[in-house]
Amino acid sequence: MSILICPVCGEKLGISGRAYVCGSRHSFDIARSGYVNLLLSKHIGKAVHGDNKLMVKARRDFLDKGYYAPLCSAVCDEALRYAENGCVVLDAGCGEGYYTSAVRAAFDRSDIAVEMYGADISKVAVEYAAKRDRSVSFAAASVFHLPVASGSCDLLITMFAPYCGEEYRRVLKNSGIMIMAIPSENHLWELKKAVYDTPYRNEVKPYELDGFEHIGVRRVSFTMELGSAEDIQSLFSMTPYYYKTGKTEQERLEALEKLSVQADFEVLTYRKK
Ligand SMILES: C[S@@+](CC[C@H](N)C(=O)[O-])C[C@H]1O[C@@H](n2cnc3c(N)ncnc32)[C@H](O)[C@@H]1O
Ligand SMILES: [Zn+2]
User: Fold this and answer.
1) What residues are in contact with ligand 1 under a 6 Å CB criterion?
2) Model pTM score
3) Could you tell which of 41, 160, 234 is best to mutate to test the pocket of ligand 1, judged by most ligand atoms within 8 Å of the CB?
4) Is there a single domain that holds both residue 7 and residue 106?
5) How many domains does the chain have?
């Protein structure tokens, strides 16, 4: 039985043919690519938009070139520390499944059987994700209304997606683990210096989160040699600055053909209290 629940009535969903169906006969088709759309229109808030096709493609191209591979390895290592045979893992805000699929593969290499899920509000993103990895169950869903049974997950991974502590605690089992990554102080410093008149270092907020015990931090810092204007643009479009950049800054960005830039992250691990 899947951990997915019906977004209409909350009953457990089971697979019947090419659809997920609940006991009250609400039915959700599985798309040809393999994901299921469990988004109800009332859950798509006006303020929250999933990533569009262009953003999803930019991120996928960038990540698939391996630029963030050291971060991905650190997340896989951290996930493996807490993994047990038969564990249930959810990647909340999974995008196009780069980390989801890598974590899944890391479990496989360690011979740990896992039930893996990914959820993202962007249908384009989960469509890519589902095509990338058929062994993961992907759903279009909001992290603010996860169609996931309470207390069903051993491990929740959330990478640069909106944070909904209440939902994350609800879906985790008692003492369940949450792993997330945040940009640290020097992340993309050279890129910011090249684009802005007065660049700022990232402010790292206190680690404490309501209802979670903070149990681990790994700093992951490395240098990326961006070899083309396209890669620089892709990276920039993955950042929150993308939305706040004026014409002058955009022109400076477009003039960059290559760039050596620091990636600086912290991988944070929490246990549900
Ligand atoms: C910066 S991307 C990160 C994606 C992926 N975790 C990664 O690191 O490659 C943020 C993701 O959050 C998704 N997102 C935004 N609002 C969301 C929501 N309310 N529920 C679920 N996903 C959401 C976007 O569609 C996007 O895929
Ligand atoms: Zn139902």
Assistant:
1) 48, 50-51, 59, 93-95, 98-99, 120-122, 125, 142-144, 159-162
2) 0.96
3) 160
4) no
5) 2
Question: pLDDT of 232-258, one tens digit each?
Answer: 999 998 888 877 788 898 899 999 999
Contact (Cβ atoms closer than 8 angstroms) between residue 173 and residue 23? no
Question: Cβ(87)–Cβ(154) under 8 Å?
Answer: yes
* Structural domain contains residue 37: no
Residue 24 Cα to ligand 1 middle (Å) = 30
Domain enclosing residue 126, as ranges: 43-272
- Which of 262, 255, 264 lies closest to 190, judged by CA? 262
Q: Which atom of ligand 1 is nearest to the CA of 93?
A: 22
Give yes or no: residues 110 and 172 share one domain. Answer: yes
Looking at the fold, whether 70 and 162 belong to one and the same domain comes out as: yes
Q: For residue 235, with 0-12 CB atoms within 10 Å meaning exposed, 13-18 middle and 19 or more buried, which class applies?
A: buried
- Cα 187 to ligand 2 centre (Å): 44
pLDDT tens profile 29-69: 999 999 999 999 887 765 456 778 888 898 999 999 999 99
Which residue, by CA, sits nearest to atom 16 of ligand 1? 50
Residues in the chain where the model's pLDDT stays below 50: 47
Residue of 51, 56, 188 to mutate, ligand 1, most atoms within 8 A of C-beta: 51
Q: Is residue 140 part of a domain?
A: yes
What CATH number corresponds to the domain at position 263?
Answer: 3.40.50.150
Q: What is the pLDDT of residues 21-37, one digit of tens each?
A: 999 999 999 999 999 99
User: Between 98-109 and 69-82, two packed helices, what is the crossing angle to 10 degrees?
Assistant: 50
Q: Is residue 220 part of a domain?
A: yes
